[in-house]
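Preliminary data (for renewal application), nicotinamide-adenine-dinucleotide complex.
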Amino acid sequence: MTSATLSAQELVSLQRRFFRTGQTKSLPYRIEALKRLRRGIEDYQTRILAALRADLNKSEAEGFHTEIRLVLGELDYTLEHLEEWAAPRVVPTSSQIPDGVSRIHPEPYGVTLVIAPWNYPFQLAFSPLVGAISAGNTAVLKPSELTPNVSKISAQLIAECFPQEFVAAMEGEVETSTELLREKFDYIFFTGSTPVGKVVMRAAAEHLTPTTLELGGKSPSIVHLDADLKKTAQSLVRGKFLNAGQTCVAPDYLLVHEDVREALVQEIKLEIADKHGEDVLSNPDFPHIVNERNFDRLSRFLQDGKALIGGRSVREQLLIEPTLLEGIDWESPVMQEEIFGPILPMMTYTDLDDVLEKIVDRPKPLALYLFTRDQEVQNLVLNTVSFGGGCVNETLLHMSSHELPFGGVGESGMGSYHGRQSFETFSHHKSMLVRGV
Ligand code: NAD
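Predicted structure:
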């Protein structure tokens, strides 16, 4: 029987019964499960890449590097360190309890739910799953219905690797999420938009279920006076137009010092032509917008300001050119919501303090990118603005490190994962004081 034939309620109680057998708590069981998943992903690689091409027109190279490779990396890193992470940790005990030993025991929560979005539909489903399994939980994965080919292949891969009482995928539309969220899970890991994050948290509150929310928002990029403009343009173009801008940590908008605006625009133009071709609309490997609703939403932004670069689109192919907009201010429609497409609005500044005040007035961003070699400016920005994480003189790369916990703050989310943090996120830390030893 596949998970599709079970209701959410049946699946959760099946997994709960299995969790109570204690099998998932055994370290060899978890290690074997992670190895099985690794082999499964390798076996399915061609099919996963084909599904990413069908759903988003991701090239094989982009699909491999931004989805499969990251999950395999998480698996390898976890397999290398799991024994150490899972071991109880002895911590000092007060001298007033001389016969006492204090230990922190990581233990699995139990039955977990992972809800995934469509923009990196493989990576953002399977990376959290690595954390859930490594910590000894069972897991139900709800892939995004907006990328149906990846959803289907993910469900097949999971069914081939695991019995459904341990790990199962439940495909479906919003109703499926709603049905799942009615159940009592022991942990919920959600990646998606801020409005749906609120729905998830409300549902979790009913059962007091702890939750990680990996959400989105408007991530600023600030290019200061002294930035290396060529490298800055390379990094901005890579970060913004990867997956046609449908990346949660993509630079959402650009703030550039007035004095370097002209030169930066020229560098960005050269870089787009170099990386994506002179005519991006006929580049067979440029990803398309996920669906017509998002295409239409983005097309309205193309009416904002003036396109200095790009600005064309083809609805039949859901394609939008990499676009740099000027003539934008903080009140423009494009500045009122996360863009999530290949459109980069640019505003100039002369006083950095003014800009920082504007950013701080708004919801805390998921990421912030700063381009400057000036240490004082770096300190000022870091100490003034709260955001999930980010880079100086780079974009996106903070999220590819196993050593850097990845997550948002405020409206861009709560909790974090990647590397050891994934294991910690999916573990309860049971504090024990043992006397008489
Ligand atoms: P979404 O919130 O629309 O959907 C995410 C998941 O939630 C899907 O599986 C969907 O089926 C489900 N869902 C949708 N509506 C629901 C509802 N009313 N009740 C219950 N479940 C529901 O997000 P999306 O459009 O798939 O993804 C885009 C958003 O995700 C952007 O805001 C982006 O910034 C954010 N995102 C964040 C990260 C991160 O790591 N922080 C990563 C990728 C995407």
